[in-house]
Amino acid sequence: MNQRNLLIVSTSTVHGKGYLAYCEDAIKSFFDGIEEVIFIPFARPGGISHDEYTSVAKTKFNELGFKMRGLHEFDNPKKALEEAKAIFTGGGNTFVLLDQLINQGLIDVIQSKVSEGLRYMGTSAGSNITGLTINTTNDMPIVHPKTLNALALVPFNLNPHYLDPDPNSKHMGETRETRIKEFHAYNDQIVVGLREGSWLHVSGNKITLEGPLSARIFEKDKTPYELQPSDDFTFLMEQ
Amino acid sequence: MNQRNLLIVSTSTVHGKGYLAYCEDAIKSFFDGIEEVIFIPFARPGGISHDEYTSVAKTKFNELGFKMRGLHEFDNPKKALEEAKAIFTGGGNTFVLLDQLINQGLIDVIQSKVSEGLRYMGTSAGSNITGLTINTTNDMPIVHPKTLNALALVPFNLNPHYLDPDPNSKHMGETRETRIKEFHAYNDQIVVGLREGSWLHVSGNKITLEGPLSARIFEKDKTPYELQPSDDFTFLMEQ
């Protein structure tokens, strides 16, 4: 039985609020009883350093009552993950994040430890990699990982920062919905469009949508549809 | 001496106008004297078929006085390109486009024929692949090409559909400028942000920006800056 316990958060920050402020109650509850959370800073947004990024996350986690160290601070990151009780993977560039995890040989250890109960929280890129693949990231492919297969902690794909089409836009780039439709011309798995302000909580095979917004579900050859936090998301775990 | 002759167009369509309507004079002039243009439909926007996509392009090119066939209609696409006088590569998904060109073994023949004078027009994804790599595409990585190295018909990278930050946006996804800054944490080449309504015309080592708008130039470790159509872009070809 898979003991996974995941908090899959669309964005670290919503407009007009501080870093992780809007979901801090959920974070406190998710990591309840944990002394130290290991931060994975590899997605390094805007190219900032691992130290700088860890400092941002640590300030907030300390405020919430948790110790925090960056995974890059350990001589043996694999051993650090084997001994960790909880990890938080921050957002930034999903390609850079996945590439680092692959190159440091950390995919397997995260998968096996999560299935044994290591608590995993991700935001944005850190959420994207909980899916089967990162083929539905919004990020620019600034590096080229050898595979787009991700952690597969859940049996579907994520699109964090899901954005509805803007009816007033004069820009001709593809909408998010068009892009995910294109994805389904080549791939079969369900994609969950997770809007900013939403997160999924996965505990074993139980899954709930939290936050005030609905999520948009994309299934191959079906019209996309909305599910509310009160709806049953169990089918996502049963594929 | 490289005989390249390129029309690198940001978008096929600007808001409120028909397909290729806003730049049709430039297209007529670029392909002047050519009887038939070969269309490369591999980027297939929204997952439409190669036939459907070719039909869209052909209707417009016929109206402008050119014959057109899709590259997928030939039994031997490599031979078709060797014998072609002009090609037009349409937009869609840049990853799908590059993957097809690689898998069909067409990269080398396009590179060598373009250097001998085969006229090449691209829009959007078809423009993106004229750069050194597709690491600065806006597209979703719905397939995983074995490399992101592109046609390198010019010695820099492109960002078509370049979009200025929206000061009123409440969305927390990265701006295009932030993404390109991240690109420069891992890559050195200049990136040209080409706005919708703009195109570059490259003839040998001469390069001009056309259309009514400025372009945004991103150099590693420099503040991005604007260049007008009247400015000298020669430095881009001299790297």
Automatic annotation (TrEMBL), chains A, B:
It catalyses: Dipeptidase E catalyzes the hydrolysis of dipeptides Asp-|-Xaa. It does not act on peptides with N-terminal Glu, Asn or Gln, nor does it cleave isoaspartyl peptides. GO terms for biological process: proteolysis. Gene3D superfamilies: 3.40.50.880. Signal peptide: none annotated. Its EC number is 3.4.13.21. Keywords: Cytoplasm, Dipeptidase, Hydrolase, Protease, Serine protease. It is an enzyme of class 3 (hydrolase). Its main location: cytoplasm. It comes from the Bacteria. It is found in: Cytoplasm. GO terms for molecular function: dipeptidase activity; serine-type peptidase activity. Belongs to the peptidase S51 family. PANTHER family: ALPHA-ASPARTYL DIPEPTIDASE, PROTEASE S51 ALPHA-ASPARTYL DIPEPTIDASE. This is dipeptidase E. It comes from Flammeovirga agarivorans. The lineage of its organism: Bacteria, Pseudomonadati, Bacteroidota, Cytophagia, Cytophagales. The gene is pepE.
